[in-house]
Design goal:
This protein is α/β, with parallel strands linked by helices. It is 38% helix and 21% strand. The chain is built from ten helices and twelve strands. A hairpin with a 3-residue loop joins strand 8 and strand 9. Helix 1 packs parallel to helix 2, helix 3 packs across helix 10 and helix 7 crosses helix 8. The protein is globular, with a radius of gyration of 20 Å. The two termini are 20 Å apart. Bound molecules: zinc ion.
Amino acid sequence: MPDNSTNNFAGIEIAAKTMRGVIVSGAGDVIARRDAVYEPENLVSEISELVAGLREVKPIKSVGVGIPGLVNRETDRVLISMGLPSIARDDIHSELMKATGLRVELENDANAAAYGEYKAGAGRDGRDLFYIGIGDAIGGALILDGKLWIGASGCAGEVGHITINTEGIECECGNTGCLETVASAPNIVRRASERLNRDSTSSLSRLAMEESFTAGDLAHEATNGDDFSIMMIERTGRFIGIAVGSIINLLSIERIVLGGAVMEAGDLILKPIIEEAGKRSFQPCFESTRIVAAELGADGIAIGAALLARDFGGG
Ligand SMILES: [Zn+2]
């Protein structure tokens, strides 16, 4: 009799200071979820501990890990990580396999999220998609005919570093005026703070009374009807829409899926993205592209990593 008891997979998202782990069934459903904080110097042992905690809930066949860095999937080496430089060292993949005793698939976080949406979310009934993840940074990934398209360097899909403003501020990547310098969560907060400081009429906004606030607070205020917050979210959507219009013109792709914490503003941000993309792309291309919100929410990267483990880590 076939033993289906271990047909479950763990997916781990490594964020800047926190980790999220999920167990996903062979059918792609989330069975369990655990969050943890970690110290970068203990990353391997802390991932291993999180996996051990998940294994207490259900047996696990293999593990997928989504990291904020560029992974060479042939050698399983982390090539570079701007968000978590300590992860680009030695052979973290082998260390993780040794520490967990399980097969491990290591993948870039945007690629993992794209794969998750493709298999179990907003792209599941399609063939090709472009995924854009908008959070503390902006990542992107391209899936063509079911395969992640990584390009000659392995970093295809870096939509966060498309130039939006030739006179913009410097980006972490060395360029100036990248999409990320205006539309990532920290940069939305920066733009909103600068505006609140110089525009006295904006003091009507509840955010002006806060010492510090997050992009999530801004999205929350916008959904509560705060005019200033709505305006900031809408302007952010228009910047993203410029990049989306370029992607449409370049690829005429069937579907563009937008995820990440910033998309929690829902239609308030999705509508201006679609409007702006429509203005800036060739009409026949625009009309053949569906621009939709991701469906897997805050579990997206972890679910995608688990599904990569299911599809590529079965050994
Ligand atoms: Zn950049």
